[in-house]
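INTERNAL AUDIT FORM
Audit reference: QA-55
Scope: verify that the stored structure record matches its stored sequence.
Auditor: D.O.
Record contents follow.
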Amino acid sequence: MAASAQENARRDPVISVSGEGDAAVAPDMAVLTFSVMKQAETAAAALAENNKAMTEVQAALKSSGIADRDLQTSNFSVQPIYKQFEPKDGVYVPPEITGYQVTNGLTVRVRDLAKLGDIMDSSVKLGINQGGDIAFTNDDPAATVTEARKAAVADAISKAKTLAEAAGVKLGRILEINENMQRPMPVPQTMMRAAAMEKADSVPVAAGENSYKINVNVTFALEQ
């Protein structure tokens, strides 16, 4: 106990503060996620219909300038469709398979936002009939993150100076900095609902801004 007390007595005084900084930038890329879902009496027929629709969708996307690297298949599934029956005379009646459902998902990165409305419009017309979420993001947000990072450190330094002045002590050198970055909140919009708003023109899209937030914890020495 005595040794611990002496150690605490010898510990250099410090002050720890947190700082927050954020910077916003308009998105330059959209990520679409949607699916083609087809049902038929047999798995083979459902798959054939699904493949036809998805092939047409991908061909249209490529003709719009979407590169192969920006197309990715996801969440492919083949599932039976069951018909449920009520118990007959109290006896359980097992469900009966009446058909099959094939779902094929696609993730698309759209780097030219001016084309986004037309791409959504044509995709729905060609067979997209399930899902359809949009997330606006940035291909390279490094400069914006750097701006937020500088603002967070400046905020921490300002807080530390205020606290040190109020306490009547002198702020020393920085001993430690820890950073925590918050990913930008995407601007969500449901593609299928947006497509339903279509009239004569392509789907209207508002991209807004992405805000990048940085939190830092900074520990300063206090001069004696």
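Auditor finding: record pair retrieved intact. Strands lie at 14-25, 29-40, 71-83, 96-110, 130-137, 170-182, 189-190, 210-223.
Action required: none
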